[in-house]
Amino acid sequence: MTDLDGYGLALHTSSPDFGLALGSATAHGIVHIRQQVWPLGRDLSTQLHDLLQAFLPPQRWADVRFLAVAIGPGSFTGTRLGVVTARTLAQQLGIPLFGISSLGAIAHHHYAFHPQADALDVAIAMPAQRGQLHTALYTRQNGILTVTLADQVRSPDEWAQTLTAHPHSSTALQVEGGFGHTTADLLHLGFAQWQQKKPGDWQSVVPYYGQHPVQI
Fold it and tell me: Which range among 4-8, 161-165, 195-199 shows the weakest confidence by mean pLDDT?
């Protein structure tokens, strides 16, 4: 079995939804993706491992070539649990792990359904603590998602000023609730890094909550 005969697996635990996505890695991208989302909320810690084991078949762990995981921003406890699980799997399986921004996955999802928005920024804001916002600006050119302004916590006034200073923003997305539906987008973004032969060192993947990464 060659690398491109294997599979990629993505985990999303940064919101009340628990998302898993598995797809076949080919020279042209990830195909035959199956995705499932469970609205677990606080039950995530007790059900994650059982659902993961039930989701994988008919594939086996030996078939998985890389992992992708949402590193936040989002739920503190959920994100940490997902990252710890993914790190453990990557270490045990000896495969690359790619940490993906939750906001980046949302941006990828937006462009997938709005291809006409290529080369125009998408502005994403999500509620943070103390009335602040998790914010970022992304763009996509020739199918490649890039960061215009990296994820950062800003006040609503600062975010409004940022949008005014970036007139090329095509869409301002206000994100609330669960976003496990973007797990397949994590998979696509992880595949892009894997295809570029980036290291995918599991030890470097840590949760991001808007200020500083949390060491595990």
Answer: 4-8
